[in-house]
Amino acid sequence: MKKFIITCFALGVALSSFAQYKFQVPENRCVVAVNKDASLSLSYSLAFANEGQPIDIIDVGLPDGNYEAVKADLDGTEMGDIRPSTELAYGVEVHLGDRAIATGKSGTLHLTALLKNRVFQDDKDAAYASLEFSPTWYGSAYTSGTTHLICEFVLPG
User: What is the DSSP secondary structure assignment for residue 101, as one 8-state letter?
Assistant: First the structure.
């Protein structure tokens, strides 16, 4: 009986190390400002409500690898550790360090980036141009609930 209890305890500890990220994103707000040089100034406000292990890294998808000047804060505290994402083909991961969002807690990530060469001249009519953009999102393996998605485009004057 003692061996069974110890085995169950060891199995429980091993399984707890496989705890997963699970969270809600009640709001995903992005502003895409089109610049005259064909770049985009991107701004995100991503609200997280944590239901799983502490959120210590937040990945944010970007359209391609042609970005620069990425800055982020969590609830107003600047996040200095921003790296290319190891999980996404294109994007960044923001390391929260001691600001990790604990289980049962909420936090809002604000992220800005400059996306280069995102406006494309129409090849048939020089008076027209286009852009393609899709906001970042998180898969059902990690999320629950619904998201209020707001995506605002600001065109140049």
Answer: B
